[in-house]
Amino acid sequence: MYPRSERRTIMPRWIPLAFIAGFFAVLCFHQPMAGLLHAYAIVPFAPYGMTAVPPLGIPQWLSASFWGGIWGIVMLWIFTRFHVTTGLWWKSVLFGGIALTLVALFIVFPLKGRGLNLAGFPIGFLVNGAWGMGIWVFARCFGLWRVSPRST
Description:
Blueprint: H1 14-39, E1 52-53, E2 58-59, H2 60-81, H3 88-111, H4 121-141
Antiparallel strand pairs: 1-2
């Protein structure tokens, strides 16, 4: 992604851009997908929720966007570390759809006392897969992935 010498810096320049890409992917892709599913009465929750999230009491949409930014850093680091250079759009969708949904189902929901509900996997895959597509779009816009004939 960037020259080897830059990898030794404390915070390479791609980290804040990856966070911003993940943050905006929630706002522009993840939440609209949740809105679509809500409009068709597939999910009971509306997008851009304003309910306060403990412990800081920030709105749900801001919490989701923050975690989207963190996951953006993780995803771009993994893709860079393992030299993922082709099929980035569908690998981004799969990463979001599978990795984020599994973490939500097996870690986040049980910690919040919601239990394990594997029936939520398809919905999680759609919403988080949309986030993955958003990461791909914003990462391309920010120049985090070089455009090559095989990268689309």
